[in-house]
Amino acid sequence: MNGGNDNFNMSFNPEELFMVGRELKSPLSAMNLELQFLRQGLDSKNLDVVTQSVEQIELSMLKLDRISDALDKIYTYQNSQTKLFDLSSINVSAPCNDAISEMRKDLLLQGVKVQTNIPKSESLVFSNFFLLKSILEIFIQNAIPYHQNQEIRLDISEKRSKNIARISVRDFGPAIEKSIFTNRAKKQETIARRPQMSSVGLFCAMKFCDMINAKMGVVRHNDGASFFVDVNLSKQLELL
Amino acid sequence: MRKILVVESDMLFAKKIIKNLENEYQIQLADNAVIAMQKIDESTPDLLIINYSLNGVSATVLFHELQSYLDLAKIKIFLLYSGLEMPKISDLKYYGVVKIFNKDAFSLKRFNSEIKAETEKA
Predict the structure, then answer these.
(1) Among B36, B70, B68, which residue's Cα sits nearest to residue B50?
(2) For A128-176, how does the pLDDT look when each residue is reduced to its tens digit (9 = 90+)?
(3) Secondary structure of residue B25 in the 3-state scheme
(4) What is the mean pLDDT of residues A231-235?
(5) Is the pLDDT reported for residue A6 higher than 70?
(6) pTM metric for this prediction
(7) Beta pairing partners, B30
(8) Checking CA distances to A181, which of A11, A155, A193, B105 falls within 20 to 30 Å?
(9) CA distance linking residue A156 with residue A239, whole number of Å
(10) Bridge partners of residue B3, in order along the sequence
(11) How far, CA to CA in Å, does A108 sit from each of A2, A101, A113, A168, A201?
(12) What pLDDT, on the 0 to 100 scale, is given for residue A236?
């Protein structure tokens, strides 16, 4: 067993498996349609249509890649002795910057920017770089369709009294149910209101949080929501 | 211009459908059944394109709701589905479903010609 949680349970129930299958099919159906547009564009020698279709296929591929990558991480965590998911002291801003950089193509194709608020005194957290980065990528991906003025926001704040650093991604989408992580009906309500949000993504992010002993949650705003992950501050800080 | 309401929770797919039809039809989008009813109340469409597996309130509930109004019960429906179990048109005829399309093997050509034929009838 790797990482930070010995009681990690990777098993999927039938409902979760259905959700995964459905989300994998969505970009595939979109790609099938886009390929037909691409063919039309090529036949009519319309370069704009061709370019647009290629970009959309790229976007669907990125989406598929991200879902399969997240599922692969969960599988690998449970079934191999890799050190990849071990916890260590990391600078909290590093996975944030890396996640934004990793998402640059999605952001560019959808014309959205991430505004960051990263304090100058950067905190050290006890976490796993890859998993924390993946959680943030999921948050960013889910926030992109619900931007405001082509922007979403990533904030880092430190809560010394609770010994945590909170990383949150703010969107401006439809209302969200606070108990989406615990109440099935509320989860369904939220997903119905936010059809562009990836349920598989959220599910994987929750698993990743378990793997790094972090806590995930959501803060509701009048005009959107902030998904956050609370990561334990590193004890190394106390030595400074 | 004929009015079509697309009721689809899968936004990737919905956007492509709209892109395909928007030059010839007046298209509206609802990402769930509740919004669909609001849009239908505002302006009755000539044709509905509905995904069978909607998020939240199901397509079947929407069908029943439409059937409870004399005028709305007449709207023709094109049904989209994905997965192994193909809904039977004989079971859904009563609700106004006239065509069924598999999203996994979707042909734009067939879809466009069926829409043209149906809206010309209306």
Answers:
(1) B36
(2) 999 999 999 999 999 999 999 999 999 999 988 899 999 999 999 988 8
(3) coil
(4) 90
(5) no
(6) 0.83
(7) B7
(8) A155
(9) 22
(10) B26
(11) 35, 11, 8, 21, 20
(12) 67
**Which residues face A97 on adjacent strands?**
none
Give CA–CA dist A178/A160, Å, rounded.
Answer: 24
Residue A190 Cα distances to A41, A184, B15, B81, angstroms: 37, 10, 21, 22
| Rounded CA separation A209/A184 (Å) | 19
Do B52 and B11 touch, CB atoms closer than 8 A? Answer: no
C-alpha span between A76 and A91 (Å, rounded):
24
Which residues of B touch chain A, with CB atoms under 8 Å apart? 9-13, 16-17, 19-20, 31-32, 34, 53-57, 82-83, 103-109
pLDDT tens digits for range A34-81: 999 999 999 999 999 999 999 999 999 999 999 999 999 988 888 887
Which of A155, A143, A67 lies closest to A112 in space, CA to CA? A143
Alpha helices by DSSP H, chain A = 14-43, 47-79, 93-102, 104-109, 129-143, 184-193, 199-211
Reported confidence tier of residue A1, pLDDT bands at 50, 70, 90: very low
Mutate one of B11, B18, B55 to test the A interface: name it (highest A CB count within 10 A). B55
| Other Cβ atoms within 10 Å of A240 Cβ, number | 6
Q: Which two tokens stand for residue A13?
A: 């129930």
3-state secondary structure of B32: coil
Tell me which residue has tokens 């910057």.
A97
Q: Nearest CA to CA, how far is B13 from chain A (Å)? A: 5
CA A205 to chain centre: 7
- Distance, in Å, from the CA atom of A66 to the CA atom of A47, rounded to the nearest integer, reads 29
Tell me the nearest-neighbour CA distance from B83 into chain A, angstroms.
8
Rounded to the nearest 10 degrees, the angle between the axes of helix B59-67 and helix B33-42 is 30
Residue B69 has pLDDT above 90, yes or no: yes
